[in-house]
Design goal:
This protein is of the alpha/beta class. The chain has 14 helices and eight strands. Helix 5 (about 125-135) runs antiparallel to helix 6 (about 145-155).
Amino acid sequence: MARKDLLKGLMSGEAPAPHAPAPRMTGGAIGAVSRSIADLRTRALVEVPADLIDEAGLPDRLEPEADLEALAESIATHGQQVPVMLRHSPTVEGRYEVVYGRRRIAAMKRLGQPVRAFVRDISDRDLVVAQGQENNARRDLSFIEKALFASAMTGMGYDRKITAEALHIDKTVISRMLSVVETLPEPVIRAIGPAPAAGRDRWLTLARKAEGRDPAAMITAAQGDDSDARFVAVLKSLDPARPPAPPSDDAFRGLLAQGEPLGTIRTSKGRSVIDLPEDFGSWLAENIEQVHRDWTRSRDA
């Protein structure tokens, strides 16, 4: 089975070729029981006690507890509608490891209920690939969470072709994802959070502006009620400081007569605008020539 179709095959009940030797089958009733058990281990939808399920694969959420209570309430009301995928623990008999469905398992643990699951015998490599394919199908996983998952895959030695197939994303997008994670220190990303409203282009812009900047300052700037607000705050903090506004030549003052407010005058760019009560303004307009002559004589004196 092609790796890019791994998740489809697992969900459809088609078990991938096991990476460990298959159990030896014998004839007769014992052989039939062995075959039935082997089939159950690879195909059946079963209920597994939640406390028997351990973590495996790669972290894929920046805020795994977000809205978990609401999910638990929904499952309590409507039941677990979508099965998870598990594999048998390769190290502890009788325990399981999660392939995908971590939030559903966490919700079922809160409820103290068994988890409906497909159980597959798959390798560590195929576990991560299947997890990546399921992550890509989920709309609630943000760009940066997928980018961190892609970075973790490459960090484990998977080449970009395998990573691209796991996430059903072309290698160009993978390269852009990795460039964001390589440029932004992980503590900065975690201080911001998933920022679901910030897509690829905005994260690329943030990474470009963050080059050579102080990570501690960006972490300090990550303030807000939610991760989208924190993203915006960090992005704004990286904008160049605006130069101070040039001093204005505007002047604004009140006009007084015998100590009482009479009006206002605003001077700007060599011109003056006077605001006066209507009756005095009318009188001034009628006597402006005399006022101007008096002003001229005072200048010439």
